[in-house]
Amino acid sequence: MRTSSPKISPSPTPDPASARLPKIVLVTGSLEAGGAERVMADLANYWGSRGWQIVVATWSCADIRDFYKLDNRVRREWLDVYSPNNSLIGKIRSTLHRVSKLRRLLRREKPDAVLSFIDVPNMLTLMATAGLGLRVVVSERGCPDPVPSASNAAWAYTLSRHWKILRRVLYRRAATVTALNHESARWIESECGVPVRVIPVAVRELAEVQVDRELMVLAVGRLHAVKGFDVLLKAFAKVRDSFPSWNLTIIGAGPEGPALVRLSAELGISSRVTFLDPVQDVETWMARASLVVLPSRSEAFGNAVLESMAMGTPVVATRCAGPTSLIEDGKNGRLVPVGDVHSLSVAMSELMARPALRAQLGSQATLVRKTYEQTVIMRQWEDCLIPRRLSHTTGVLKNE
Fold first, then answer.
1. How far apart are CA 342 and CA 192, in angstroms?
2. Residue 13 has what pLDDT?
3. Among 54, 224, 299, 321, which residue has the fewest nearby CB atoms (within 10 Å)?
4. Phi/psi at 349 (5° precision)
């Protein structure tokens, strides 16, 4: 019996208006060396390399040099407005000018979504987008406020009461508020009365480094009191005589730099401590180090912890919100109390004396490459920015 072939209808011509790549405006303070800045640059470059229309706008001026390089397909904008008046009124006027400048940029670009990082820039972005009908996602990069005290250096980095009130009002206007870990999310939910989604930092594409491990303790971060590098110097001074072949390298820049150099001299360890400015190939240093220490008094995540673990380097960190979400004490790293010089020196000494333990912890640490794999984390961002309209296989927007 003969059967007729089914008729095949010709495929419709794609409508350019029905499918296009997304346009996103990313807003942050600057692209100087720092954890949030690195993540912002990574997001921009990831999407820019896939053909998305990406604009990165910073509240800083063009005179402040970017530390992180952007893909040449990513457009760069600066929102700073020069004001010779440093009075309170002058600063308020300058801030309002910046907000107005961002608003003009957004009205011109008409992006599909806006993503802002860090508390004060988040609030300014929400002011700038008022009434524009844009989808705004803000990312809180901080962590629960420390207990106030004169001796707690982390307290100096919390928001004032007025900013906290304004944050509570403005965050309710965001389409989504994100945090770096569950502890920080619960804190923001309590502070602002809004639901918070947890999106951690992704393991960025790290170079494959083939180098021998050196007897070096490495620390990476901003030279601010909140990072606790003074605690690390004191702990290293306690173990130096037992480990004469080991040295300490601290990579970073910040206002505490001169004080830390003086402290190393007072402790008699200057010849064993090297201070370096931020470097582009920080993963090479992580691969060279036999131990990485993050002695922060407060830490929302710990990019240096994540990347060191990804490079197979054992890490000792303090029990802050961020490191405790990455490290299981004794399994893939070590955790010690905040500000405790003795406990830090004991943990360092144990690892410095036991290469087999360092290798064991480092091997387990590399599993973060799977847990925090870049495409998985990026999909979480995309679901926030372009919900229900983005094809994850093509990265194309589809009209509904």
1. 37
2. 44
3. 224
4. -60, -40
Higher-confidence position of 265 and 394: 265
Say which DSSP state 373 is in: B
d(CA 320, CA 163): 24
- Reading the block at residue 396, the tokens are 């194309």
**Residue-by-residue DSSP string for 277-335:** ---TTHHHHHHH-SEEEE--SS-SS-HHHHHHHHTT--EEEES-HHHHHH--BTTTBEE
* Helix spans in the chain (H): 35-48, 88-109, 119-128, 161-170, 182-192, 229-239, 257-266, 282-288, 303-310, 321-326, 341-353, 355-365, 368-371, 374-385
Conformation bin of residue 239: beta by default, left when phi > 0, alpha when psi is -120 to 50: alpha
Find the radius of gyration of the CA atoms of the chain: 24
- Whether the Cβ atoms of residue 299 and residue 219 lie closer than 8 Å to each other: no
- Across the range 46-69, mean pLDDT stands at 92
On whether the CB atoms of residues 324 and 335 are closer than 8 A, the answer is yes
Q: What is the pLDDT of residues 249-269, one digit of tens each?
A: 999 999 999 999 999 999 999
How far apart are the C-alpha atoms of 196 and 142, rounded to whole Å? 13
Q: Which of 14, 13, 43, 12 is nearest to 27 (CA)?
A: 43
In this structure, are residues 71 and 49 in contact, taking their beta carbons and an 8 Å threshold?
yes
- State how far the Cα of 36 lies from the Cα of 119, in Å rounded to an integer: 11
Give tens-digit pLDDT for 76-134: 999 986 555 667 776 778 888 889 999 999 999 999 999 999 999 999 999 999 999 99
Q: What is the pLDDT of residues 298-348, one digit of tens each?
A: 898 999 999 999 999 999 999 998 999 999 999 999 999 999 999 999 999
Tokens 């309170």 map to which residue? 88
Please enumerate in sequence order all residues whose Cβ is within 8 A of that of 224, keeping only pairs 6 or more positions apart, or say none. 157, 254, 255, 256
CB burial string 300-337: b at 16+ within 10 A, e below: bbbbbbbbbbbbbbbbbbbbbbbbbbbbeeeebbbbbe
Q: Taking CA 41 as the corner, what is the angle to CA 38 and CA 44, rounded to the nearest 5 degrees?
A: 150
| Among the listed residues 270, 266, 268, 326, the one whose alpha carbon sits nearest the alpha carbon of residue 294 | 326
Residue type, 296: S
**Residue 202: closest CA among 5, 74, 25, 379:** 379
Q: How far apart are CA 62 and CA 58, in angstroms?
A: 9
